[in-house]
Amino acid sequence: xxxxxxxxxxxxxxxxxxxxxxxxxxxxxxxxxxxxxxxxxxxxxxxxxxxxxxxxxxxxxxxxxxxxxxxxxxxxxxxxxxxxxxxxxxxxxxxxxxxxxxxxxxx
Length: 107
Fold this sequence. Notes:
Layout: H1 2-29, E1 31-36, E2 41-46, E3 51-56, H2 64-93
Antiparallel strand pairs: 1-2, 2-3
């Protein structure tokens, strides 16, 4: 009985590994945008948190300090979206496998 349980657990782990690979590919292809001040600044990042694009409306160029804050705000918004997508995609990949509390999967 113990041997069968271990084999089942190993099979589950292999299936989870395959699902994780697909999930990581999905996240790598993901791009999300965050914006600040009604679109004066838009920051686009990948599912791996790599910055892809920054769009700045000319109206935001007059005040350097404000522009810096707007860029940070837009990035933070995009970052939160990626984290939410990451949680959703990875929870699907690990469905059925018990994970310890607080366990965070690398992506």
